[in-house]
Amino acid sequence: MDRLPDQLVWEILSRIKKTADRNSVSLSCKRIYYLDNEQRQYLCVGCGLDPANEALTSLCNRFPNLIKMEITYSGWMSKLGKQLDDQGLLILSNYCPFLTDLTLSYCAFITDVGLRHLSSCSKLSALKLNFTPRITGCGILSLAVGCKNLSILHLIRCLNVSSVEWLEYLGKLETLEDLSIKNCRAIGEGDLIKLGHSWRKLKRLQFEVDANYRYMKVYDRLAVDRWAKQWVPCDNLVELNLVNCIISPGRGLACVIGKCKNLQKIHLDMCVGVRDCDIIGLAQKSRNLRSISLRVPSDYPLLLLNNPLKLTDESLKALAQNCSMLESVRISYPDGEFPSFSSFTLDGILILIQKCPVKELAFDQVYSFNDVGMQALCSAQYLETLELVRCQEISDEGLQLVAQFPRLRILHLSKCLGVTDDGLKPLVGSYKLEKLAVEDCPQISERGVQGTARSASLRQDLSWMY
């Protein structure tokens, strides 16, 4: 090893992906130890730091070129020693001049003061906060003022972030490309308009509302009416992920759906108020769409918006006609839905499958999909992955057709009551599938999955039935 040039040793170290292996190799000789110290760019620390600030100082001295740092205290208990505090973030700002990506998870002792320390990290471009209960909007604003290159911001369960001046400031900077706000109870869809011109740069948006908090406390019909009607310039958005959001015509996030000409991936999970015209507008504008995931809510919340409409086959037909690159389709319904409440019929689903090059198809509690639908999949030339969850209209007759699917490689069955070992018999010995995963299907046994795929697994937990 002593004769190898430094560049070759660095190349060898860069190919060692597991941190434990990297640590072991670095202890093999002094030369590799010091070269590893220079090259190491990512570090994940947390409960093992004790005493926290002193240990972090030692690590930062040893690895002077850190670019990415993750500090996580998941599972922390007081007996593990004191957590990293604001002084720890001051250490980071002083000892890590190249820091660009920082994640703080379950850091209960970090406050706005700590974020102000980080504001001196001029290269910081990505900040992810996951359950940091003492952080407020003031701290995020102070960091945004100092870190002019912030392009990625993730806030997850930051319950005390109530003010949104930081959104306005980031809107003026026009640097934000990836924004994720999940279960931050004081931030609503209507607040996103404060991003202003930053919408032009935004490429990814994830917005998730705490559904229990919403329905119990704040977001009623009057709150929706107060949202401003707006025009949102979101031409560069490529990924949109909305969970438990209210979609009101001409307001809030309804201004985003249907205006994203470069959108490639959309996920709408229990979004109340989504109508056919929203999906039709999306399909007509976003012709590069590659992935769509819809979890359709029940009719009850729609009554809160005085909107009895729900998604129908017209939405699926519009996707089929306009989105010629659509590769992934996921449709699901929540617990408690009944077959008569399903928005999409088999005809609409088949039109989508037949006209788009769908490689990945997933249905969860879609009662309209049955053995006839399975027969149609025999002509699906691109289908590689099929996931069926709680699809009770599928029987052994339909399951046996899987052997005729031209390119299917992965099959996942979960909580399907109508299928038995007999449905898998045509697959036994053929090894057509690369992977078969069966979960909680009471009539399929360990013997039934043996020999059906190169990798076959069975898990049985039938508690969901009782």
TrEMBL record:
<dbReference type="GO" id="GO:0019005">
    <property type="term" value="C:SCF ubiquitin ligase complex"/>
</dbReference>
<feature type="domain" description="COI1 F-box">
    <location>
        <begin position="2"/>
        <end position="40"/>
    </location>
</feature>
<dbReference type="InterPro" id="IPR057207">
    <property type="entry name" value="FBXL15_LRR"/>
</dbReference>
<feature type="domain" description="F-box/LRR-repeat protein 15-like leucin rich repeat">
    <location>
        <begin position="376"/>
        <end position="450"/>
    </location>
</feature>
<dbReference type="InterPro" id="IPR006553">
    <property type="entry name" value="Leu-rich_rpt_Cys-con_subtyp"/>
</dbReference>
<dbReference type="Pfam" id="PF18511">
    <property type="entry name" value="F-box_5"/>
</dbReference>
<dbReference type="Pfam" id="PF13516">
    <property type="entry name" value="LRR_6"/>
</dbReference>
<dbReference type="GO" id="GO:0031146">
    <property type="term" value="P:SCF-dependent proteasomal ubiquitin-dependent protein catabolic process"/>
</dbReference>
<dbReference type="InterPro" id="IPR032675">
    <property type="entry name" value="LRR_dom_sf"/>
</dbReference>
<dbReference type="InterPro" id="IPR041567">
    <property type="entry name" value="COI1_F-box"/>
</dbReference>
<dbReference type="InterPro" id="IPR001611">
    <property type="entry name" value="Leu-rich_rpt"/>
</dbReference>
<dbReference type="Pfam" id="PF25372">
    <property type="entry name" value="DUF7885"/>
</dbReference>
<protein>
    <recommendedName>
        <fullName>F-box/LRR-repeat protein 14</fullName>
    </recommendedName>
</protein>
